[in-house]
Amino acid sequence: MGIPVFILGQSGAGKSASLRNFDPAEVGIFNVAGKPLPFRKKMRVADNAGYNTIVGALSKPSVNCYVIDDSQYLLAFDLFDRAEEKGYEKFTSMAVSFQRLIRYIQTQTAEDAIVYFLHHSEMGPEGQLKAKTIGKMLDEKLTLEGLFSIVLFARANQDGYKFITQGQGLSTAKSPIGMFDKIEMDNDLRAVDDAIRAYYELPVRVSCKKPEKASGPESDKAEKPAANTAKKAAA
Question: If you classify domain 3-234 with CATH, what class do you get?
Answer without folding.
Answer: alpha beta
